[in-house]
Design brief:
13 helices; Peptidase_M4/M1_CTD_sf; about 675 residues; elongated; Immunoglobulin-like; binds zinc ion; 7-stranded mixed sheet; 5-stranded mixed sheet; Neutral Protease, domain 2
């Protein structure tokens, strides 16, 4: 359309201007490097063939390139230039990368750390020990190991650092775990200065398990390359002194990385389609039965890709307030090709709402992968500008299709843009995303979650600021980080009202996009928006793992000369005070509603009435979403204690409701 074309032209002019400035003044090296990068000198790639017939001006297709955006949105600590070749016969990746890291601190840095995540799938790893080879309802296939081996590590001057590397296990001392590698640099990197390292690596893909691997000719490459750890500066996330944030890859843990630039060449068989973070900067080249794609992404903190010859490809452009213009690209398993409109509808609607509620989606693409049923473990996962939907298990799924997809799209905001430390404070991405997922499902599809039933499933409340692997079990992790985290935000919303809550979430997003906040930063936003102190609330529900238990403890009714004297004892165990209503029902049909501020742990209500009390209920409209013991909210009067009936909910129903869909 004419309007979009002129916008693109404007962007192109702006990009060209920045490029010229970059060359002249020497900043933003990536711009120059990216285009001048001599791929053939560093990488043994197939010789470039004649450009593909598909050009930028042709109809949208998977291989149509895009131009760069002009703005620099993040601090761009890291810059990766990667070249990777898929060895589809052996299920392996062969990679080379040049990584530049800028010291963001005020001290010189001598030691350097890389995450080698695929080693989680090697025997003896902490990940396998903790998970028992099972994750998210998926099981690791016997004998299907995965790994990454660093085969070369040098400085730009060619000095090898390989003899310096040592595997470190700061969390558990498990010497068989090789997911984090350390080495000393030849010279310290001064504050504000950069170091560039070159490395070669080989990845053995496991059969798809825990987000990555191969399934037939489907490949999901997530967390596949040696990735620099995060160096946190003083004051960041409450840190007193600057330093590396170092953790291994755990059973219950996702990831943490700095924002930067990725330029990634991916070489696959010619028949494959490739979905990846970012966008293509030029049409893929084809040579000797191989196809080479060059993807580029900036202001993102990870790069994932997926390839398969079987993907059905669908693309549409979309814009709405807060979404300046995005190409939504679907890579669908053939079983779901007729469901493309459902995926597209969910992706567009979710983006539109997120843009409207929180702020702009600053990227030009969003790619959605629908893995095959055999690649189930790759489903329901988020990466910057790329998400995986639930795998295609049957041809007519229920709302779990939409629920999983909107959850992952919501992660573009809570994870992709507001980039929490998922090792240490997983609820900041999963709890926030689950909360947003509920809002999206309600506002797009009118599908409401049954919160009282979900709350009843909170059997092991644990603090939300626990490191991911410190939870009692993977169920405890999911229960708290996803569900209780979501309920904490819902509880806040119930107390401050929808409008104020929207303002809190928007303010938090705007303030911390492209940053790594902690929950204290969120609390500060809550307090600045509401102009109230929320210490009690965050202490009870985040620092401590509490739930709220409001209950009717006892009812006593006594006949008097003029009628009846009723005494009702109500209690609050745990949680932070919040006002609740109390419903008193009398035998003659009269009823009375009272309010209690919940400030004390209990209150005795005494009242006289012409008719005796029949029952009392506290919080009958289930406003206290963190009350996980609803069965004691109701008590019938004048019945011997052992016969008192209480409302209970079916455990089976709760489990079904909670884990019906798998989305992380
Ligand atoms: Zn999630």
């Amino acid at each position: 359309m004419p309007k979009r074309r002129s916008l693109r032209m404007l962007l192109f002019v702006a990009a060209a201007a920045v490029l010229v400035m970059s060359v002249r003044f020497g900043f933003a090296d990536a711009w120059v490097d990216h285009y001048a990068f001599p791929a053939s000198s560093l990488y043994e790639l197939p010789a470039a063939a004649a450009p593909s017939a598909i050009e930028a001006k042709s109809e949208p297709g998977p291989d149509v390139p895009q131009t760069l955006q002009a703005a620099i949105l993040s601090n761009r600590i890291t810059e990766y230039h990667i070249s990777v070749v898929l060895d589809e016969r052996n299920g392996a990746l062969s990679g080379e990368q040049t990584v530049t890291w800028k010291n963001p601190g005020r001290k010189a840095v001598s030691d350097f750390y890389l995450h080698l995540y695929p080693n989680a799938f090697a025997p003896g790893s902490t990940f396998l020990k903790e998970s028992g080879g099972q994750l998210r309802g998926d099981k690791k296939k016997e004998g299907s190991d995965g790994s990454v081996e660093l085969t070369s590590l040098t400085t730009m001057q060619g000095e090898t650092l390989m003899p310096r590397i040592r595997y470190v296990q700061p969390d558990d001392g498990n010497k068989n775990d090789r997911t984090l590698v350390a080495f000393r640099l030849p010279e310290p990197i001064q504050p504000g200065k950069s170091v560039t390292l070159q490395m070669k690596f080989k990845v053995k893909l496991p059969d798809v398990f825990a987000r990555m691997g191969k399934a037939g000719d489907f490949v999901m490459a997530g967390q596949w390359f040696p990735k620099v750890a995060v160096y946190e500066t003083a004051g960041m996330r409450g840190r007193a002194a600057e330093g590396w944030n170092l953790h291994q890859y755990h059973g219950n843990s996702e990831f943490y990385a700095d924002f930067g630039i990725y330029s990634v060449r991916i070489d696959v068989p010619e028949s494959y389609k490739v979905a990846a973070t970012g966008f293509l900067t030029k049409s893929p080249s084809v040579s000797s039965g191989r196809k080479s794609f060059l993807f580029y992404a900036e202001d993102v903190h990870d790069f994932a890709w997926s390839a398969s010859p079987n993907f059905e490809y669908v693309e549409e452009s979309f814009s709405s307030p807060g979404i300046p213009g995005v190409r939504i690209k679907l890579y669908i398993d053939p079983l779901h090709k007729d469901l493309k409109d459902r995926y597209m509808h969910a992706a567009k609607s979710a983006l539109a709402k997120l843009g409207q509620w929180y702020g702009e989606y600053p990227y030009s693409t969003l790619s959605v992968i629908v893995p095959p049923a055999s690649g189930n473990g790759a489903g329901g996962m988020e990466y910057p500008t790329l998400v995986t939907a639930a795998s295609a298990q049957n041809d007519n799924p229920g709302y779990e299709l939409e629920r999983t997809l909107v959850h992952e799209v919501a992660h573009q905001y809570w994870y992709g843009l507001v980039a929490s430390n998922e090792f240490e404070e997983a609820w900041l991405d999963e709890g926030f995303t689950s909360y947003t997922e509920d809002k999206l499902m309600a506002s797009i599809y009118g599908v409401l979650s049954n919160l009282p039933v979900e709350a009843s499933y909170l059997t092991r409340p644990e603090p939300l600021n626990l490191y991911s692997w410190k939870y009692s079990s993977s169920e405890g992790y999911a229960e708290n980080v996803y569900l209780r985290g979501k309920l904490v935000l819902t509880s806040l919303e119930r107390q401050v009202g929808d409008k104020t809550m929207s303002k809190i979430m928007r303010t938090y997003f705007q303030k911390y996009k492209f940053k790594h906040p902690s929950f204290s930063d969120f609390q500060k936003v809550v307090e600045s928006v509401t102009k109230e102190n929320w210490d009690d609330f965050f202490l009870a529900y985040v620092r401590k793992g509490e739930a709220a238990d409001y209950s009717v403890q006892s009812i006593q009714t006594r006949k008097t000369d003029s009628g009846y004297e009723n005494s009702v004892l109500i209690r609050r165990d745990g949680g932070s005070p919040e006002p609740v209503s109390i419903w008193l029902q009398f035998q003659d049909g009269q009823s009375l509603r009272k309010k209690w501020d919940g400030a004390q742990s209990q209150m005795l209500i005494k009242l006289e009435s012409p008719s005796p009390l029949l029952y009392a209920a506290i919080d009958p409209s289930n406003n206290v979403v963190l009350d996980n013991r609803k069965y004691n909210n109701y008590l019938k009067a004048e019945v011997p204690a052992k016969q008192r009936t209480r409302f209970a909910t079916s455990i089976a129903q709760m489990i079904e409701g909670l884990f019906g869909s798998m989305a992380w």
